[in-house]
Amino acid sequence: MRSYDDGCPAAHALDLVGERWSLLIVRELLLGPKRFTDLRSGLRGASANVLTERLRALEAGGVVRRRKLPPPAASQVYELTEWGRGLEGIIVQFLRWGARSPAMPLDTRIGTDALILSLRTLFLPTAARGLELAIQLEIGDRYFSAEVVDGTLLIMPGLIEHPHAVVTADAETLKRLTIGTRSLEVAVHAERATVTGDKASAERFLDLFRLPESAGAARPDFEGRSGA
Fold first, then answer.
1. Is residue 30 in a domain?
2. Is residue 124 domain-shared with residue 59, that is, in the same domain?
3. Helices vs strands, H then E, count in the chain
4. Which residues of the chain have pLDDT under 50?
5. Is 76 helix (H, G, I), strand (E, B) or coil?
6. Which of 7, 50, 136, 160 has the fewest beta carbons closer than 10 A?
7. Has this prediction a pTM greater than 0.70?
8. Structural domain span for residue 37
9. 87-95: long-range contacts, CB 8 A cutoff, minimum separation 24
10. Does residue 75 contact residue 69 with C-beta atoms inside 8 Å?
11. Which backbone phi and psi does 87 adopt, to 5 degrees?
12. pLDDT in the model for residue 69
């Protein structure tokens, strides 16, 4: 592992997580433990060798640990240590900071975990005041419960017993339905999304997310129009 050889705690932190892919591995583990194959699926640009190297360094630094799941799974998974989970607030702030970039690549593919963390970050509490919604999100073979209660959002892996609506779509479509400009009606008509339950509740939920104002020139939205 390369080092800045600098006594500042910030430099030491960068020694631990500053290598390419390291913080994105942490991002992928914020929603729970993952197998190596799951991490490769979420970080498609990282080769197996690089991913192995970064995981080994994060484990040596006390950020990540390995453990074996009990039978019948018996798979080896990676998870954040308690100290490693302290990076969550830093990554959330990083998301907020990056979302203000006028060069934000809105049309670039986004992974499922990155999308869920982005939704947590870009939620609009003022728009949700007085609302109570329970929405089930189905993204591929993964399920997320999203509950809105009077200006707060709790979104995490799992199922809701009695959701107002169930929205099924891939991560890219959900990105466009929330922080983009695509309407739910268009996505359903194009067979990029399905909704069961109360469609109006689903639409209200999808309208509770916005990209923050750009730090520079207005950036184009997903349809090529100018907007923040």
1. yes
2. no
3. 9, 9
4. 224-228
5. strand
6. 7
7. yes
8. 9-93
9. 87/17, 87/23, 87/26, 87/63, 88/30, 91/23, 91/26, 91/27, 91/30, 91/117, 92/117, 92/120, 92/121, 94/23, 95/121
10. yes
11. -75, -10
12. 84
